[in-house]
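Weekly puzzle thread! Below is a chain. First person to post its structure in token form gets bragging rights.
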Amino acid sequence: MEWTQSNAEKRLQELKVPDMPILAIRPTPVSVDSDWFQKYKQECRKFTRSLTDSVEELAMMNLSREEFMDLLMGRNIPTNLSIRFRTPLIFGGKISAENMFMCLTFPHSQNMDRFIIEQSGNETLWLPNPARKIYLPIHSTISGMGGNAVADRQSQIAAANVMASRRQ
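Winning reply:
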């Protein structure tokens, strides 16, 4: 069954990503270079280093100070975070930081995979395409003045430190 934008948005609500913007493409499979993974890893490092403009979103992810700094330095991606392509390589997407975004692996990345797979064979494919580098559903960004978990407070402190260093 061919999906409309309305069908796609309804399905995203069911998959608990209700505020995810989507992009319609006409999937035309292309071949992917055999050395794609090496290029991907290099671009992931570049992408993670570019996240200094996204510290507010990172602070909402409850990362430890070590995870936060490792991520921003391009050394390591914390457990349960995924870097995704906005347009998959097999549909002509490029290996570039501009074609990437980050989200929680469970449940968001897994649900986005399910969303794309369910459209298999359709002439129009609706792809998740968040406006920012990090996708957090709106319900996870609404909180009080501060958390009561140690990791939450450490993330907030680390984010404040990075923001202060960027202003100097």
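Puzzle host: Confirmed. Bonus trivia for everyone else. Residues 142-150 have pLDDT under 50 and may be disordered.
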